[in-house]
Amino acid sequence: MIFDRDVYSFWDLLDIRFHRLLVRFAREADLAYLTPYFTQRYFAYLDYEDVGSLTPAERAEAASLATVEALSAGRLTNTGLAYSGLMTDTTLPTPPTAVTVEGGGQQVVLHWNGAADNLGGSGLAGYRVDVSSVASFTPCLTGWDENDVGLVVSTTVTGLSVGTAYYVRVRAYDGVGNLSNHSDTFPVGTLVNQPVNFQVTATHLTSMTLAWDSNDNPLGIVYLLEKSVSGVAFQTVADVTGNSAVVNALTYGTNHTFRLKPRDMVTSVPIGSGVTVSGWTLASSPVNTTLSEIHVSSAVVRWERNGNPRGVGYEVEVLNNEVVYDGARVTVTDVDAPEAVVTRLRPETAYEFRVRAKNGAGVVTVFDTVVSGTTREGVALETAGVYPNPYRGEGLMTFGGMKTGGTVTLYTARGQEVFTGIADGNGDVKWDGRNKDGEPVASGVYMSLMETEDGWVKKKIVLER
User: Is pTM, for the whole model, over 0.85?
Assistant: First the structure.
């Protein structure tokens, strides 16, 4: 126990704090508090600069004289004033107000407006904070039942669960332990995580199945699901829970973008920019395919969309004797109605045509019913010619008068393909009398089919060796 101590004035602030702690302890422990040791300090301190060079006896005498003078004048030191307030302070501080929250995944930072103590009281000494997952605060979280955070107006609460609602209240205490009433109860929601692995798991004509991982969010989290079609603004689909959703009433063969945002547990406001995924619905198989026109070297094929919007792709396949004919050129248009113009067909040849749809992801439908027809007989034009004819295997034979990039094909009398060439910029194709395998062709009569600006032309070729 300390029985005495010097009376220098630099002890004033420490003595005030020491008194507050002792008085608070005595009240909370229901003890009596007497302080004869400090009596002189309630009335007088001495400045070290004035009495530091005196002997202890001289300092004691100077302190006694200063105390008598202060008693006579009714004057107290700061320590005396503080002690007087401590002995008479029974007024509660005002409660804190306006608790606000900065949320995080597993922690929040709480802020509040400071309380006020009564004039002449013992002064604010700190705040106590309650945090609970239930509004009744029974029970509170471990470590957050009347947790003393000191004389501050913010604190950090850690160890919380992601995407969970909590409740917070704060109250103040003064220098002698008087506790204010609690602040209002404030709901607090920890931030939920953005979902991950958002993907399309199944596509159909008018629906898609979406799935995602919760990223540690609890099962009760609500997500706002939105969709955008072909780049237009997002529109709400529904609020969903869990880890998957089926979106119906979609358009055939169309690109849809979906966005998923978690909602705040307390305010239900969507959080963050969300995650997105895009996918194409399946196209519908075309119907009622018809061969509307057929000419010497071309044909026009038409069909009905069968619910597909404009912009869905179509593939037109051309077959000859049930084998895909790669020589044809197909140009598909879809303005008022979808159709395809097929060119580079051979005269007097039977063809089959079939159509299927394809969405933007390249997924195709089944083919519609096959339609068939035979191209008309070609006309020999003077502009196209073959020379020398007969050809005796010396030098090169020229197929002339063709269109640039046009095709010439040479056949045997039995219809077997011997040679195929592409016309140069002058409309010519040169042939050295060899087949496509590089072997000399036997003497005989052959038929050539030449592509000109006016259509396909047939020419008889004689080879003599």
Answer: no
What domain range is 405 assigned to?
Answer: 385-463
In 285-416 the beta strands, taken as DSSP E runs, fall at 287-294, 299-304, 313-320, 323-324, 329-334, 338-343, 350-358, 371-374, 385-387, 397-400, 407-411
| Helix 78-88 / helix 12-28 crossing angle, nearest 10 deg | 10
Final residue belonging to a domain, choices 67, 88, 109: 88
Tokens 């909590």 found at: 166
Model confidence pLDDT, tens digit, residues 413-423: 887 889 999 99
What CATH number does residue 125 fall under? 2.60.40.10
What's 369's DSSP letter?
Answer: -
Report if residue 1 sits inside a domain.
no
- Both tokens of residue 339? 């159709």
Q: Are 377 and 361 in contact (CB under 8 A)?
A: no
Paired with 224 in beta bridges are: 239, 261
- Into how many domains does the chain fold? 5
Nearest to 258 by CA among 279, 282, 273: 279
The whole-angstrom separation of Cα 273 and Cα 303 is: 43
- pLDDT, one tens digit per residue, over 405-454 is 989 999 888 878 899 999 999 899 999 999 988 999 999 999 888 888 87
287, 304 in Cβ contact below 8 A? yes
Are the beta carbons of 436 and 420 closer than 8 angstroms?
yes
